[in-house]
Write a structure and sequence with these properties.
110 residues; alpha/beta; 5-stranded parallel beta sheet; 15% strand
Amino acid sequence: MKLLFDENISPRLVAALSDVFPGSVHVRDVGLVRATDAAIWAYARDRGLTILSKDSDFHQVSFLRGPPPKVIWIRRGNCSTVDIEALLRSNRTEILAFGVDEEAAFLALS
């Protein structure tokens, strides 16, 4: 599964998680810094990426539009990059199952 890390997620996680989620990118690396949610949504949809964000807006859009793309919402307040990395690693199996579930559009992790 390839992730598109939203602006509110550290770009350092792309490299830190490359062994678990190879081919993932950060919005900063693809020219989408300060882009609208619609532009990020379209980019992810067109490239088969799953959006990873701490922004609840993508949660709402996923219910309105449905997949693709899929959305993973990190439901933690202020937390460190290390905390997010640990969360994603510890939920790897669930995340990968979500990625292949054709009916699933949204996954919340906390």
